[in-house]
């Protein structure tokens, strides 16, 4: 899939764990894990907004397009 999820990179830069981020943005650990591993088929803008707000980043820092 040409959309790459760099959530793990941003979490490492901000030194925040998956469970801590899930708690802060009120998302289940399982759903955040699916997003982090790139297995998600979609993401709600409200979820993306919450992640960006908590990690102090832009959507482009988390999502990347790489043509196949």
From TrEMBL:
Top-level taxon of origin: Bacteria
Signal peptide: none
SMART domains tied to this protein: HTH_XRE (SM00530)
InterPro entries linked to this entry: Cro/C1-type_HTH, Lambda_DNA-bd_dom_sf
PANTHER family tied to this protein: DNA-BINDING PROTEIN, DNA-BINDING PROTEIN-RELATED
HTH cro/C1-type domain segment(s): 7-62
SUPFAM superfamilies in the cross-refs: lambda repressor-like DNA-binding domains
GO molecular function: DNA binding
Organism this protein belongs to: Bacteroides faecichinchillae
Pfam families: HTH_26
Protein name: Putative transcriptional regulator
